[in-house]
TrEMBL record:
SUPFAM superfamilies: FAD/NAD(P)-binding domain (SSF51905). Residues 94-116 are annotated as: Disordered. This is FAD-dependent monooxygenase. GO terms for molecular function: monooxygenase activity. Coiled coil: none annotated. Pfam families: FAD_binding_3, NAD_binding_8.
Length: 428
């Protein structure tokens, strides 16, 4: 059924944009408010992995032509995840998404081999391309430079969001899709905690072409993701190939209507991680101020000399200008709260370590679950009204699946890459 309400979404990341598409497909009046001044205001990362249930959420939300364009521009590396030690001896190697989520960098969700145009996945997406595709279908619905400062409940049951620049927006439902530092979460659930997992990453990419690919070791292309670990409390390296099925700029122009997608070549996503208390690792505030060249020097210093020569050959090809730092965060479980016309999706409620590659998967799943719940609003009578009943149903499902994945990610991160056992609160 059509959902005859207006929905305000705070945050134009993948989860928020997927939700906007899903609701618009049901005739909902949607507006997305993003605090960044423009889509490219800050680094958004490079490779993300989607398999089930993320692909189901994406399919449920996006119009069919945009979903096909997403898959066409994705890569489908071998659906395996590998963990190796610093001498490149295999510690674990299994099908991506199969079985218990024991492997750093894996999926933890049911999946199988797939390819562009197929269904099951997993797929390696270039995150900026995926976001551009989603934005291309939301022209006029995304508003930038809008930093949420508060919201208020109106007498008629609606919600008004107020932004720092004086703008405001009123809707029947307000959805916080605004990430780890969610302003909506702080207002809705002031006791909910997101903690510093005690890991720092220097993240970048290695460009691939026929010549450079020929000079790289075969093992980097044999899995969708490979973690090379020095053991708990020691540095680690993560590598994931992104070899796109179609050039985005060409595939976008073939779309009807055309989608203007930025050119991008194949690459290896490559990150060096270390515990925050590593002797060579500065405080995160200092890390953020380092130049790309200084980040490269720091990563090499943190990693040290006693790693397989293949690792050093890989890092010699790092694109220095692509480097930026990340702090890994993890949420604590949140007890059930009283549902109402404000809710949360993605990292705004269940931030997690990336070791299971489930952060984006779960955010897009949230978008699909909330779309489905709202699409059925009114199917059963409820004293709170159809909207609140739908939100309550979504929140109950989301807490059950999402916080189980957060816990799995935490355990795997502690075992494989030294994620802190007793995380500390993030600074506000």
């Amino acid at each position: 059924m059509l959902f005859p309400y207006r929905v305000i979404i705070v945050g134009a990341g993948l989860g928020g944009l997927a939700l906007a598409h899903g609701l618009r497909g049901q005739g909902v009046d949607v507006a997305v408010y993003e605090r960044d001044a423009h889509p490219d205001a800050r680094p958004q990362g490079y490779r993300i992995q989607l398999d089930e249930p993320g692909l189901t959420g994406l399919r449920r939300c996006l119009p069919a032509p945009l979903f096909r364009l997403c898959l066409a521009t994705a890569g489908a590396p071998p659906a395996r995840v590998s963990v190796r030690n610093r001498r490149l001896e295999v510690l674990a190697d299994r099908a991506a998404g199969g079985g218990s989520p024991e492997t750093a960098g894996g999926s933890g969700a049911a999946g199988g081999s797939g390819g562009p145009g197929g269904a099951a996945g997993p797929y390696a997406f270039n995150r900026p391309t995926l976001r551009q595709i989603m934005l291309s279908g939301l022209t006029g619905h995304v508003h930038y430079g809008a930093r949420l400062v508060d919201y208020r409940h109106e007498a008629d049951g609606r919600v008004t969001a107020r932004f720092a620049d004086g703008r405001s927006a009123t809707g029947d439902l307000l959805v916080g899709a605004d990430g780890v530092h969610s302003a909506v979460r702080r207002l809705l659930l002031p006791g909910a905690r997101v903690e510093d997992a005690g890991l720092r990453l220097v993240y970048g990419r290695i460009p691939l072409d026929a010549r450079s690919r020929a000079g790289l070791p075969d093992w980097v292309f044999e899995s969708i993701f490979t973690v090379i670990t020095g053991g708990p409390g020691h540095p680690h390296l993560g590598v994931g190939p992104v070899e796109l099925g179609a050039r985005p700029e060409h595939a976008g122009l073939a779309q009807r209507p055309p989608a203007a997608l930025s050119p991008v070549g194949d690459y290896l996503a490559c990150m060096v991680g270390a515990p925050a208390d590593h002797p060579a690792m500065p405080a995160f505030e200092e890390l953020r101020e380092l130049t790309p060249a200084a980040l490269r020097d720091l990563a090499l210093r943190v990693l040290g000399e006693d790693w397989h020569e293949d690792v050093h050959r890989l890092l010699a090809r790092w694109d220095t200008h692509s480097l930026f730092p990340l702090r890994i965060s993890t949420a604590t479980p949140v007890p059930a709260w009283e549902s109402g016309p404000v809710t949360l999706i993605g990292d705004a409620i269940h931030a997690m370590s990336p070791v299971l590659a489930m952060g984006a998967n779960t955010a897009v799943r949230d978008a699909g679950e909330l779309t489905r719940a709202l699409g059925g609003a009114g199917d059963a009578p409820d004293p709170a009204g159809p909207l609140v009943a739908a939100v309550r149903a979504y929140e109950g499902r989301m807490r059950e699946y999402a916080f189980a994945i957060v816990a799995d990610s935490r355990r795997t991160g502690q075992r494989r890459v030294g994620q802190r056992e007793r995380p500390r609160p993030l600074p506000r």
